[in-house]
Write a structure and sequence with these properties.
single chain; mainly alpha; 4 helices; 41% helix; rod-shaped
Length: 117
């Protein structure tokens, strides 16, 4: 008799990693994750007589993009944080299995006749 166990790591796609990263950051209290977008100078350079009211400016879009990029860069540049995040993710159990593998103390070495009962 023998028992075969498959031990390995996941091979996640970028989409999988980004999804898990977003999930992790959504509950994070790290400074980079909780920074907020602000638009204190949103009307700088805007002529309300000629520009479309309510339109999101190019500066506002760029500012929001840089906020996200800078925050992600700050977080994933921390090697200890990334190592822990990546290690946990790629070794995470895909599904819960009860009593699998069979605990050694429950293994019956005398059961040479499988299926008899």
């Amino acid at each position: 008799d023998c028992m075969t166990l498959s031990v390995g790591c996941r091979a996640p796609s970028v989409s999988d990693l980004m999804s898990k990263l977003a999930e992790r950051l959504s509950s994070s209290i790290e400074d980079s994750a909780v920074r907020r977008y602000t638009d204190d100078d949103i009307l700088k350079g805007v002529d309300i007589r000629t520009d479309a009211p309510g339109e999101i400016t190019d500066d506002a879009k760029e500012s929001a993009k840089h906020l996200v990029i800078d925050s992600l860069t700050s977080i994933i540049s921390d090697d200890a944080w990334w190592d822990e995040f990546f290690g946990r993710y790629v070794t995470e159990q895909k599904r819960v299995r009860n009593n699998y593998p069979i605990p050694l103390e429950d293994w019956d070495d005398d059961s040479d006749s499988e299926g008899e009962g």
